[in-house]
Amino acid sequence: MASPRLLACRQFKACTNRRLISDRALECPLRVDSDGGFEPVIDTSGEEAVTLLREYKSSYRALVTDINLKGKMDGWEVAQHAREIEPEFPVVYMSGAAAADWTSKGVPNTIMLAKPFAPAQLLTAVSNLLNRD
Questions:
Q1: Chain centre to alpha carbon of residue 60
Q2: DSSP calls for 72-133
Q3: For the segment 35-64, what is each residue's pLDDT rounded down to a tens digit?
Q4: pTM metric for this prediction
Q5: Are 89 and 61 within 8 A, CB to CB?
Q6: At 115, is the pLDDT very low, low, confident or very high (cuts 50, 70, 90)?
Q7: Tens digits of per-residue pLDDT, 61-89?
């Protein structure tokens, strides 16, 4: 059985039938995701992540995104698009400077990980969102 895929974004990464979205700074968390049974998918911009979600939405189970991304779209916008595609899509945000904006700019029922954080925290956050009833 294949591991769930994660779509990640920051300067971007992702998650399928359990994928995450995040960026280059997610190298350590991506290793943890692989150890935790997730197959990470890496992309380079918010726009590309949204395109993947639109075209292959059933392949992804969660989004992990940094706020500051390569391209015109930030992590807040990527998450909004993900929720337009799938209203209950799990989202984990990661940020250092923008963490305080989560309550006003984040979509509902998400998790914010303030940097720096331990790789196990990312795995726990994704698992918690995927296991909600």
A1: 10
A2: S--HHHHHHHHHHHSTT--EEEEESTTGGGHHHHSPSS-EEEESS--HHHHHHHHHHHHT--
A3: 566 667 766 688 988 998 898 888 888 898
A4: 0.80
A5: no
A6: confident
A7: 889 888 888 889 999 999 999 999 999 99
Domain spans of the chain, in order of start: 5-130
CA–CA distance, 114 with 126 (Å, rounded to integer): 15
Residue type, 67: I
Residue with tokens 């698009």: 81
Give the CATH class of 5-130. alpha beta
Of the two residues 130 and 41, the one the predictor is more confident about is 130
The CA-based dihedral angle spanning residues 66, 114, 99, 94, taken in that order and rounded to the nearest 10 degrees: 10
* Coil vs helix vs strand at 36: coil
